[in-house]
Amino acid sequence: MIKKAIGAGILAGLVLFAIFQQLNTADEPLAIEASKATTGIGAGMAAPNFTLKNLAGEEVSLKDYRGKKVMLNFWATWCPPCKEEMPAMEKFYKENSKEVEILAVNLDPQNNVKGFVEENGLTFPILLDKEGRTQQTYSVISIPTSLIIDEHGLIIKKQIGSLTFEQMQELLK
C-alpha cells in the first residue's frame, strides 16, 4: 500500500512538472515579443517631451512646438556625416521655417558648439543635451538621427543617418 502511495505521489509530481514546463515555454514567445515592442522609439509613437537649454542658456521644450511640424535632429561636432548634413539642414530651414521647425540636439556640449554654429552659419535652434537624457529617451545610438514629428506630437518618421536636402523636402510632404 505504501509503495502505491509513493508511486502515485511521484507520478502526480511528474505530471505537475510537465504541466508547469508546458505553460512556462508557451509564455516565452509572448515575453520576447513584448520586450521587442517596448524597446526604442519610432514612427507612430508620441514624441516624449523634453526641456533643454539652447546656446543662449534659455530653456526650450518640445511641447512649445505643438501645432507645428518638427524635425528633431541628434548630432555632434566631431561627427563627419553630421557636418555634411548641416548645410542641407540650414538650406531646408531657410526655405521651410514657416512650415517646420528644426531642433538640433547636440550630444557633445563640452566641445565648442557655439564656434561650430558660427563657423557654419547655422540659424536653427541648437539645444544642448549635457547629461544625455534626451538621447537616451529617444533611443539614439547612432548619429545623425532625425525624427519628424507632426503637429500633434506624433513621430511620423525616424531616420538614422544623414539626410540630403531633397530627402528633407520629401519628409515634409
Molecular structure report:
- With 173 residues, the chain is of the alpha/beta class.
- The chain has 2 domains: 1-39; 51-172, Glutaredoxin (3-Layer(aba) Sandwich), CATH 3.40.30.
- It is 43% helix and 20% strand.
- It has helices spanning 2-37, 80-96, 113-120, 133-137, 165-172; strands at residues 51-54, 59-61, 69-75, 100-106, 126-128, 145-149, 155-160.
- The chain has a 7-stranded mixed beta sheet with strand order 2-1-5-4-3-6-7, with helices on one face.
- Strand 3, helix 2 (80-96) and strand 4 form a beta-alpha-beta unit.
- The longest helix is centred in the first third of the chain and has 36 residues, at 2-37.
- The protein is globular, with a radius of gyration of 25 Å.
- Residues 13-20 and 22-39 have low confidence and may be disordered.
Percent of residues in β-strands: 15-25%
Rg is 25 Å
Q: What's the domain count?
A: 2
Q: Roughly how many Å apart are the termini?
A: 82 Å
Which blocks of ≥5 consecutive residues have pLDDT under 50? 13-20, 22-39
Q: Give the ordered list of helices and strands.
A: HEEEHEHEHEEH
CATH architecture of the largest domain: 3-Layer(aba) Sandwich
User: What is the CATH third-level topology name of the largest domain?
Assistant: Glutaredoxin
Q: How are the strands of the largest sheet arranged?
A: 2-1-5-4-3-6-7
Rough shape? globular
Find the CATH superfamily of the largest domain.
Glutaredoxin
Overall pLDDT metric? 84
Q: Main β-sheet, in a few words? A: 7 strands, mixed
Q: What helical percentage do the residues reach? A: 40-55%
Helix run count: 5
Pairing-aware structural class of the strands and helices? Answer: alpha/beta
